Here is the input.
Amino acid sequence: MQQNYTYQIVDTQSVSTTFPELSVRKGNFTDPDYIVDCDIFIAGGGTGGVAAALRATSAQMGKRGLGGLKVCMTEETDWIGGQMTAQGVSALDENYLVDTAGSTRSYQQFRTNIRNFYKRTYKLAPDYAEDPLLNPGSCWVTRLSFEPKVAVETLTEMLKSSIDKGRLSIYTRQKPIYVKLKSGEIICAGNIRRTDASQTCEVEAVGTLEFETGKIFEFRPKICIDATELGDLLPMAGLHYSVGSDSKVLTAEAHAPEHGDPDNVQDFTYPFVVEFCPNETHTIDKPPLYEEFRGRGKFTLQNYKMFDSVPRAMPEDHSESPDLDHAWYLPFWEYRRLIAKKVFADDAIASDIAMINWESNDLRGENIIDKAPALAADRLAQGKLVSLGFLYWLQTEAPRDDGGKGYPELKLRPDVMGSSDGLSKYPYIRESRRIKAKKLIVEPEIVASSGGTNARAALYADSVGIGFYPVDIHGHQEVPGAGQSTKPFQIPLAALIPAQSTNILPACKNIGTTHITNGAYRLHPIEWSVGEAQGALAVLLCAKQLHIKTLSETPSILALQQLLVEQGVPVYWYEDIPTSHPQFAAIQFLGVSDIMRGDTEHLSFYPDRPITRGEAAFALAKTMPGARGAASSQEEALAWCVKRNYLARAFKNSAHSDNSDGAQGENHSHETDPMDFLAADDIEALAHHLNASHIKGQQTLTRGEFAEVIYRIAKTHLEAARI
Here is the structure.
């Protein structure tokens, strides 16, 4: 007799403020309606999920002999893209180097495609028509803002080739409802089952519910990627995870409380979009709970004016206040403006539109993770009501710049969010379940107050990506000061690998962070980078028939890092090496593998500077077979290289010579001076002994050119030890 299984989930996109309980979907099943075999299954088509799908199905993978895999991706809403689309935050939270060195090449391509859409579709004002870094919203929180639906179209187009070639299938309006383990056990949504930490949690299949038809799909993959917004697969797979704030006993973080609180999860928000229509009235009906939220002091512009800038009251010594970005409160309206009419010279753009994502429409203290579906649905409805309440307050009570109260001219634009109520299809999620990973990223590893004068945060030998954003915590900070500046940081692979034996890879906000460090790792380009790394890793595991547990082996990590850097994924922080740089892959790989690591005092590599003999020798002594550990200084490395004829034995740089005729001198202290630049003699030796004929005859080598030579050697050795 077949066993009957019961599931209970929330269809988040269908939650209404009047009858939230109707969004709870309950059902029974014995067998799925459809079975889909695939190599890689991605649950969640948000920012991380899309990046994983894009990398896993890219043409570059095929060229490396890693193609031919079938990838399936499901998405709970009807829009792929997550926080930049269905969650409404299409004014991206990024870093100052995002367009050059601070994000992956594919993320930069996405941003370029957004800009090209507006350049192609509309006539731009003369001051903006030739701007390569066009910002359609001309807002002050980000370098790029846009309408969410444009991102949906752009992401779909970026994935189109893989879809057309049968490498990728996307299933929207589907949500996981069960996981079938290889042990035969089936765990349905709503059932939290924590296995023993040593127990294997290998997934055989994932079942999803298609909301529109009620049909159940069962995906049977080799590798699962959990890119859901709340880490939905983790409890269904029996994996250990954390929720909310962490105890200081567990993390030793300065700003962690003595006792953790699983309900202290960051606020979620329903953004909305408004248009300003002068001399018109568009006031909505007063929403339920308005007076309650207003009575708590929930609604405020926090010293900002709607359209005017006002000076800040700066502290006497504001040089010690790095978080004060400027001396003015800039206009609230322009904060996350998506479309600025001044950017366009097109009748189709009649006015500005602005997205409202402000502390006043955050819902605080109402955690929805691991709660009964009916309670979660009710709290989601409250989240919608606080946003509608803020809109009503803006329309009726917000202080006007010109005196009086309220801006009834603000018109809600449901068409921009693609929803009937004008709110985002899905709440903006800032915190998820967090996997118990092999590595836990903790506060002192990333914050600016740690690490002394080091320009970078803690370095990870297994880095598979980078990020840079403050610890941004929306919600109760149990220890004041948890929100703080960071240094440019890395994404360690071990934080993306569950501690338990499994074939699930987390690829959203469900990685191995703490409540505090999640505040820095949760943003758009970082989630994209996490997804891209997991997409590449999943392909490597499938194509090479490897298990995740092998990833502690150095050759496996280096192989993944090589795969990533050669596809434009930075894994080491350099501000002067954009993803378009011809030696990008070489410089990145040598940095993360400690062959040519960056200066601790700054983020520059200086690729166009001539390489010195000492720098070259030190890199060679870390690269050549049997050389590791042969030299602890540039002087020792230089002696080692000269002895083996990798560099010229008798060489004297005229720049350091006391002999005006430049002849070979008798002073050997100059002949082996690490500060001398490589010259023709050295380059000739390198070309001969390293089989690098492409540099033969050159008079000097830049640091970038030398990095390319060393990278070729490193790749050869890696190939010999390849998994």
